[in-house]
Amino acid sequence: MDIQACTESLRAKVGASSGLDAILKFDCGAEGLVYIDGRSLPNSVSNENQDTDCTIGITLENLTAMAEGKQIHVRFRANDSFSPIKRAEYSLDGGDWQFVEPVGRLSDSKMEDYDFRVAVPQPQATPPLMENNTGNDHVVVVRAYDRFDNLATAKTVIRGK
Asked: Where would you tag: which of 17, 30, 56, 86 has the fewest CB atoms within 10 A of its CB?
């Protein structure tokens, strides 16, 4: 999706009265920017470079994924004071555990950073445990093992609209 298509997508989502009550800009560098005036009525979305309350630096790829609501970006750090991290996994909405590589692609130290994207399941593919879920909430659980198979977990809920 190019910057113009992304702008049109955001314009449709913002609508005439978003309740944002702020002026915001997504700056995608050389690929362009998207300016959202949530103070004016009706709200406006354009590619003009004007002063804002908040400017967010973001890649066009990430802005597109955010606008389409198709991905969740997950970042975490696993840290063990005694032994190297052996592996890490994640689960989305109670689904199967999925292996994830560290940023350096090799688990060989006591601290590893992880940064990955997860496709958001379509409504018909939502696991049975999430059927009573209100809105578009998603639960992401991560777990990391050290070389002796000691386990640490963390969980977050990503609230949808």
From this structure: 30
Q: Model confidence over 74-103: pLDDT tens digits?
A: 889 999 989 999 999 999 989 999 999 999
The amino acid sitting at 135 is G
CATH 2.60.40.650 correct for 71-158: yes
- Residue 124 phi, psi dihedral angles, 5° rounding: -70, -15
The span from the CA of 43 to the CA of 77, in Å, is 39
Structure pTM?
Answer: 0.54
User: Hey, what's the torsion of the CAs at 101, 104, 106, 108, to 10 degrees?
Assistant: -120
Q: What is the DSSP annotation of 23-81?
A: EEEEE-GGG-EEEEE-SSSS-EEE------SEEEE--HHHHHHHHHT-EEEEEEEEE-S
| Every domain of the chain and the residues it spans | 3-68, 71-158
- 118 within 8 A of 71, measured Cβ to Cβ: yes
Phi, psi angle pair for 15, to nearest 5°: 70, -160
Amino acid letter at 82?
Answer: F
Tens of pLDDT, residues 55-64: 888 888 778 7
What residues form DSSP beta bridges with 10? none
